[in-house]
Amino acid sequence: DTATMTRINHSKPTMHRFGCNPWMILLSVWGATLQADSGRPEPAIPVFKDGEAQIVERFADPDMWIRHDLWVETSFDSDGDGRMDRMHVDVTRPRQTETEALKLPVIYVTSPYFAGTTGAGTEYFWDPHQELSQAPPERQAAPAVERRGERPIISKSHAKTWVPRGYIVVHSSSPGTGLSQGCPTVGGANESLAPKAVIQWLTGHAKGYSSMDGTETMEAFWCNGKVGMTGTSYNGTLPLAAATTGVEGLEAIIPIAPNTSYYHYYRSNGLIRHPGGYIGEDIDCLYDFIHSGNPDRASYCDETIRDTEMAQGMDRTHGDYNDFWAGRDYLNHLGPMKAATLMAHAFNDWNVMPEHSVRIYQALKEKGLPVQAYFHQGGHGGEPPLKQMNRWFTRYLHGIQNGVENEPRAWIVREKDERTNPTSYYDYPNPAAEAVTLYPHPGAPGHGSLRSTPVSESVMESLVDNYSFDGESLARAEWTQHRLLYLSEPLEEPLHLSGTPTVTIRLASSRTAANLSVWLVSLPWDDGKKSKITDNIITRGWADPQNQDSLKDSSPLTPGKYRTLTFELQPDDQIIAKGQQLAWMIFSSDQDHTLWPRPGTELTIDLEASSLTLPIVGGKGSLAFALHKVVASDAAPSSSGE
Fold first, then answer.
1. In the predicted model, what is the mean pLDDT of residues 174-180?
2. What is the 3-state secondary structure (H, E, C) of 430-456?
3. Is the pLDDT of residue 634 over 60?
């Protein structure tokens, strides 16, 4: 009607808040008019039951949500244009935040992926055919990303889950991606400072603008000052990055399969290692993959970040740890962090491996922060059950005292259980786990044995490196010179592993450099199962023998001279089924993860000075019980922590 249209035509401040969307303005004013005419219903407010935010009908209609976008100014100029970079942000909120002045907490998701990725293939990765400790072949840069997506919606993710439950959902594109200014740095400081600025805008401490370069400001008047973050993989890394700044208002985060250290993603104990499924990828490849930002500054970003900082710092010749990698390791930056953290990861994630979450989880416990961990037995990704996430955000964003801080810290999906039904444990690793050391006994090139006592005299066994054979083939082989394999006796009872295994290997190489790969496998292989990774590979690890004494300094091997290495495998929590055998496999180049040097390097292992240490729930007694080595009543495992 005429009165309503007059209100719309004279509502400039309202138009700024809506991002100039007249249809949303019409809907909201129409709703307000109806309320006035009908005596105004009770205001819509969040509803809670059993410690969880419930779906509120008046929040649940997507057609009545307000959507708009803006740009938040940061504290950095990463693209060298002389102006502080601005991040592109979108907002999805219930209309009651406008018509009823309702203030709500925010679920915030930021990503470098929202505007698209290069889509280029592995031909733009590094060639894995590289001799160890020698300069790599040249790599061809991937073609530019063609940006996708239209304003004002950067992403629709998480809105249907959280807006009906009384939250506002906010997205932003990372620096140098989409319509966000700046350069992508893949773990650089601006990836922490960008979400910090958005959170400061949400809490009234930074400026938001209606356009990328304009001066018209926009305020987050609808935010109650509390922000939570979540996301998976790279999108799970960025909540942790933001939290390390200690920014006020970031109350809780749920990082899912986060990459918490780019060294641990692309290197392992001094060795150049590739994430599972991405052989040849390195940090500069990921830069190319996500760089969808302003083409006018693309060449500056390429020259300063990819072709200078990354080229000089990543060290694809030796794989040593250095200042470049240390700056991209969030474990080094946890000091200011205070956000309550629910970590989520899979024990069979061979892309972003489980150590990424376990190392942060352990550090946050030591800091005394509220922290929980959800682990499952699958592959990359996999968020906690909605109930668990809902309770976490309800407690720390809405302030409902539901007691999550007093619940068990660890929630682990047991084998064959649904991911929505994790088993709770007091902590991870299981407090009842004890270190048990096993020793290899000879049998090469067939199968040796794995026993609780070492060999009685010096025994040497050798293998010949050949990347042409993948790890599964080597583990299945009855006889091969390309690996060493040591098997326990079949388990008569299930055996529960919980924690981080370690290995000590004394070896000599026929060449001045060699890959060293270790798998712990459950045999026999069941060909009737679809998921070989989940069902048979317990854990894995890799190391460069040149880094015996330091990750920062490698020294060439002297052919024929022995070195002793001790290093960790990936963390795990797994119950090995009755009838299976533990199999410790030692080999050199891992076709799925390491460089592929010219075959023929011979590694000789000193069995007397080599061992495998496993974290077994119940310790030696449980192992003996599982192997029926003693009377069951004398070796019954402790139930503590189960």
1. 97
2. CCCEEEEEEEEECCCCCEEEEECCCCC
3. no
User: Could you give phi then psi for residue 393, rounded to 5 degrees?
Assistant: -70, -35
Instruction: Provide the mean pLDDT of the chain.
Output: 91
pLDDT at 572: 98
In whole angstroms, give the CA distance from residue 263 to residue 281: 13
> Do residues 194 and 109 touch, judged by C-beta distance below 8 A?
no
Q: What is the pTM of this model?
A: 0.91
Query: Which residues are 542's β-sheet partners?
Result: 517
340 bridge partner residues = 252
CA–CA distance, 505 with 485 (Å, rounded to integer): 14
What is the rounded CA–CA span in Å between residue 272 and residue 282? 9
Enumerate residues 6+ apart whose C-beta is below 8 A from 138: none
Q: Residues 516-528: pLDDT tens digits?
A: 999 999 999 876 6
Which residues have CB under 8 Å from 419's CB, separation 6+?
Answer: 376, 378, 382, 385, 413
Could you tell me if 563 and 548 are in contact, meaning their C-beta atoms sit under 8 angstroms apart?
yes
Q: Is the model's pLDDT at 23 over the cut of 60?
A: no
- Secondary element (H or E) of residue 496: strand 495-499
What is the pLDDT, as a whole number, of residue 534? Answer: 57
Contacts of 485 (CB under 8 A, 6+ apart): 443, 444, 446, 447, 448, 474, 475, 583, 584, 585, 586
Residues 6+ apart with CB under 8 A from 604: 460, 461, 462, 507, 508, 509
The residues facing 603 across adjacent strands are 463, 509
* Residues 6+ positions from 329 with CB-CB distance below 8 Å: 260, 261, 262, 263, 264
What band does 7 get if pLDDT is binned at 50, 70 and 90? very low
Half-sphere exposure at residue 182, Cβ-oriented, CA atoms within 13 angstroms: 30
pLDDT at 22 over 60: no
> Are 639 and 625 in contact, with CB atoms under 8 Å apart?
no
Residue 554 CA to chain centroid, in angstroms? 28
Q: Grade residue 43 by pLDDT with cuts at 50, 70 and 90.
A: confident
List, by residue number, the catalytic residues: 233, 349, 380
